[in-house]
Write a structure and sequence with these properties.
The chain has 167 residues and is mostly helical. The protein is 72% helix and 0% strand. This is Cell division protein ZapA.
Length: 167
Protein backbone atom coordinates (compact mmCIF):
# COMPACT_ATOMS: atom_id res chain seq x y z
CA UNK A 1 0.00 0.00 0.00
CA UNK A 2 1.13 3.50 -0.71
CA UNK A 3 1.26 6.12 2.04
CA UNK A 4 2.75 9.54 2.73
CA UNK A 5 6.41 9.72 3.72
CA UNK A 6 6.84 9.30 7.47
CA UNK A 7 3.52 7.42 7.91
CA UNK A 8 4.92 3.98 7.15
CA UNK A 9 5.14 2.90 10.79
CA UNK A 10 1.59 4.03 11.48
CA UNK A 11 0.18 2.15 8.46
CA UNK A 12 2.09 -1.01 9.41
CA UNK A 13 0.72 -0.78 12.98
CA UNK A 14 -2.86 -0.36 11.66
CA UNK A 15 -2.42 -3.36 9.29
CA UNK A 16 -1.13 -5.48 12.17
CA UNK A 17 -4.12 -4.47 14.32
CA UNK A 18 -6.54 -5.37 11.47
CA UNK A 19 -4.78 -8.70 10.96
CA UNK A 20 -5.13 -9.41 14.70
CA UNK A 21 -8.87 -8.61 14.56
CA UNK A 22 -9.28 -10.98 11.58
CA UNK A 23 -7.39 -13.73 13.43
CA UNK A 24 -9.69 -13.35 16.46
CA UNK A 25 -12.79 -13.50 14.24
CA UNK A 26 -11.46 -16.63 12.46
CA UNK A 27 -10.90 -18.26 15.83
CA UNK A 28 -14.44 -17.45 17.00
CA UNK A 29 -16.41 -18.00 13.78
CA UNK A 30 -14.18 -20.22 11.71
CA UNK A 31 -13.31 -20.00 8.04
CA UNK A 32 -16.10 -18.08 6.23
CA UNK A 33 -14.15 -16.55 3.34
CA UNK A 34 -11.76 -13.64 3.17
CA UNK A 35 -14.34 -11.14 1.96
CA UNK A 36 -16.77 -11.88 4.80
CA UNK A 37 -13.95 -11.86 7.38
CA UNK A 38 -12.75 -8.48 6.03
CA UNK A 39 -16.30 -7.04 6.29
CA UNK A 40 -16.73 -8.40 9.83
CA UNK A 41 -13.30 -7.04 10.83
CA UNK A 42 -14.24 -3.63 9.36
CA UNK A 43 -17.52 -3.66 11.31
CA UNK A 44 -15.65 -4.64 14.51
CA UNK A 45 -13.09 -1.84 14.02
CA UNK A 46 -15.89 0.68 13.27
CA UNK A 47 -17.72 -0.46 16.41
CA UNK A 48 -14.57 0.20 18.45
CA UNK A 49 -14.16 3.58 16.73
CA UNK A 50 -17.74 4.61 17.54
CA UNK A 51 -17.34 3.49 21.16
CA UNK A 52 -14.11 5.51 21.42
CA UNK A 53 -15.77 8.56 19.84
CA UNK A 54 -18.72 8.28 22.25
CA UNK A 55 -16.32 8.02 25.20
CA UNK A 56 -14.37 10.98 23.84
CA UNK A 57 -17.58 13.05 23.58
CA UNK A 58 -18.56 12.02 27.11
CA UNK A 59 -15.14 13.03 28.47
CA UNK A 60 -15.22 16.31 26.53
CA UNK A 61 -18.61 17.15 28.03
CA UNK A 62 -17.34 16.24 31.49
CA UNK A 63 -14.30 18.47 31.02
CA UNK A 64 -16.57 21.34 29.94
CA UNK A 65 -18.78 20.84 33.05
CA UNK A 66 -15.71 20.77 35.31
CA UNK A 67 -14.32 23.93 33.70
CA UNK A 68 -17.66 25.72 34.21
CA UNK A 69 -17.77 24.55 37.82
CA UNK A 70 -14.20 25.76 38.34
CA UNK A 71 -15.05 29.17 36.87
CA UNK A 72 -18.16 29.43 39.06
CA UNK A 73 -16.14 28.46 42.13
CA UNK A 74 -13.52 31.08 41.27
CA UNK A 75 -16.24 33.73 40.88
CA UNK A 76 -17.82 32.67 44.16
CA UNK A 77 -14.44 32.77 45.89
CA UNK A 78 -13.84 36.29 44.57
CA UNK A 79 -17.12 37.36 46.12
CA UNK A 80 -16.16 35.75 49.44
CA UNK A 81 -12.93 37.76 49.57
CA UNK A 82 -14.69 41.12 49.23
CA UNK A 83 -16.20 41.22 52.75
CA UNK A 84 -12.88 40.10 54.24
CA UNK A 85 -10.97 42.76 52.32
CA UNK A 86 -13.47 45.42 53.38
CA UNK A 87 -13.13 44.34 57.01
CA UNK A 88 -9.33 44.45 56.83
CA UNK A 89 -9.56 47.95 55.34
CA UNK A 90 -11.81 49.10 58.21
CA UNK A 91 -9.44 47.64 60.81
CA UNK A 92 -6.47 49.31 59.09
CA UNK A 93 -8.28 52.66 59.12
CA UNK A 94 -9.10 52.24 62.82
CA UNK A 95 -5.47 51.42 63.63
CA UNK A 96 -4.32 54.48 61.65
CA UNK A 97 -6.72 56.69 63.63
CA UNK A 98 -5.46 55.22 66.92
CA UNK A 99 -1.85 55.80 65.90
CA UNK A 100 -2.69 59.41 65.05
CA UNK A 101 -4.43 59.93 68.41
CA UNK A 102 -1.61 58.32 70.40
CA UNK A 103 1.04 60.28 68.47
CA UNK A 104 -0.80 63.54 69.12
CA UNK A 105 -1.10 62.67 72.81
CA UNK A 106 2.60 61.85 73.07
CA UNK A 107 3.53 65.11 71.33
CA UNK A 108 1.25 67.05 73.69
CA UNK A 109 2.80 65.29 76.70
CA UNK A 110 6.30 66.13 75.40
CA UNK A 111 5.36 69.80 74.98
CA UNK A 112 3.74 69.92 78.45
CA UNK A 113 6.78 68.27 80.05
CA UNK A 114 9.14 70.61 78.23
CA UNK A 115 7.13 73.65 79.31
CA UNK A 116 7.19 72.48 82.94
CA UNK A 117 10.87 71.54 83.08
CA UNK A 118 12.47 74.21 80.84
CA UNK A 119 12.11 77.15 83.29
CA UNK A 120 13.54 75.05 86.15
CA UNK A 121 16.60 74.09 84.10
CA UNK A 122 17.04 77.66 82.89
CA UNK A 123 17.04 79.00 86.47
CA UNK A 124 19.41 76.26 87.65
CA UNK A 125 21.88 76.95 84.84
CA UNK A 126 21.84 80.73 84.64
CA UNK A 127 24.26 82.43 87.08
CA UNK A 128 23.10 85.59 88.74
CA UNK A 129 23.29 88.68 86.62
CA UNK A 130 23.14 86.70 83.37
CA UNK A 131 19.90 86.32 81.35
CA UNK A 132 18.30 82.84 81.12
CA UNK A 133 18.95 82.56 77.40
CA UNK A 134 22.68 83.39 77.55
CA UNK A 135 25.18 80.66 76.67
CA UNK A 136 26.86 78.99 79.68
CA UNK A 137 30.64 79.41 79.93
CA UNK A 138 32.85 76.67 78.52
CA UNK A 139 34.05 73.94 80.90
CA UNK A 140 36.80 75.12 83.20
CA UNK A 141 36.18 78.77 82.34
CA UNK A 142 35.11 81.23 85.03
CA UNK A 143 35.69 81.68 88.72
CA UNK A 144 35.51 78.68 91.06
CA UNK A 145 32.22 78.15 92.86
CA UNK A 146 31.82 78.90 96.56
CA UNK A 147 31.85 75.19 97.46
CA UNK A 148 35.18 74.67 95.68
CA UNK A 149 33.78 72.98 92.57
CA UNK A 150 34.10 74.33 89.05
CA UNK A 151 31.44 76.81 87.96
CA UNK A 152 30.97 74.74 84.81
CA UNK A 153 29.84 71.71 86.90
CA UNK A 154 26.20 71.24 85.87
CA UNK A 155 25.23 69.06 88.85
CA UNK A 156 22.58 70.82 90.98
CA UNK A 157 22.81 70.84 94.75
CA UNK A 158 19.92 68.39 94.96
CA UNK A 159 20.69 65.57 97.47
CA UNK A 160 18.54 63.09 95.50
CA UNK A 161 20.55 63.81 92.36
CA UNK A 162 23.81 63.43 94.24
CA UNK A 163 22.75 60.04 95.65
CA UNK A 164 21.75 58.78 92.18
CA UNK A 165 25.00 59.86 90.54
CA UNK A 166 27.37 58.88 93.34
CA UNK A 167 28.96 55.73 92.66
Amino acid sequence: MACEPGEEERVVALAEELDGTIAVLKGRIGEIGDRRLAVMAALTVLDRLHAAEARNAELTARIARLERAREQAALAAEGEDEPLIARIDRVTDAVDRLVHIVSASVRAMDVDAEEEVAPTFARARAPEGRPDNAEPPAAGVGPPAADGESAADPAPADPAFASRTAG
